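Problem 12. The chain below contains 230 residues. Write out its predicted structure in token notation.
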Amino acid sequence: MQRMQTTVQENMDNLQASMMPYANEFKDKFNQNVEELKGRLTPRASELKATIDQNLEDLRRSLAPLAEGVQEKLNHQLEGLAFQMKKNAEELQTKVSANVDQLQKKLAPLVEDVHSKLRGNTEGLQKSLEDLNSQLDQQVEEFRRTVEPLGEMFNKALVQQMEQFRQQLGSNSGDVQGHLSFLEKSLREKVSSFMGTLGKKESPDQPLALPLPEQVQEQVQPNPPNPVES
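Solution.
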């Protein structure tokens, strides 16, 4: 009987030892994916602000043929337009990043629960994984519903600010109207790219960040104990 107990204990020890790297990889992969998502947001936000700078410089050049007094007034208004659009871009990035942090905070306890079960006693692991996958789908869907209106709000503010500037231009529009339309189109495309980053899915050949319950279940099946000598 003592030999049987020893053999079973050895099998359980071997199981826990074999699952340690998998447990750490599981948790690390979750954190890595969240950080990668945050990392993709920063360049997109920078591109958005760079587009504003580039197109506004074109607008300034288009004001050159106007009379000096008119040009100075419109340049001042243009600076105000640039400031407001950049502020909108920064607010968009801040709000989206805050929602990513909130998503991570909601899922982290579930990931930690699975991680601890993989490291130690695997009892209840199947249910923990099912809870995690269920919450993952729910929280990601809630995240997308929350951030999608942010892009729409940016575009709405953009339209209003452009219209105000067009009214300020009045009869002095010249070639400026064409540059304004191009700026609006460019910014809409950048915002679409920025928001599209949030919906980017991994390709089928990439490993899942969070394994499905049956995948882990296969990993945690203990080897049958060695035959006990009679």
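Discussion. The first helix runs from residue 2 to 62. Students who got a different answer should revisit the alignment rule from Section 12.3.
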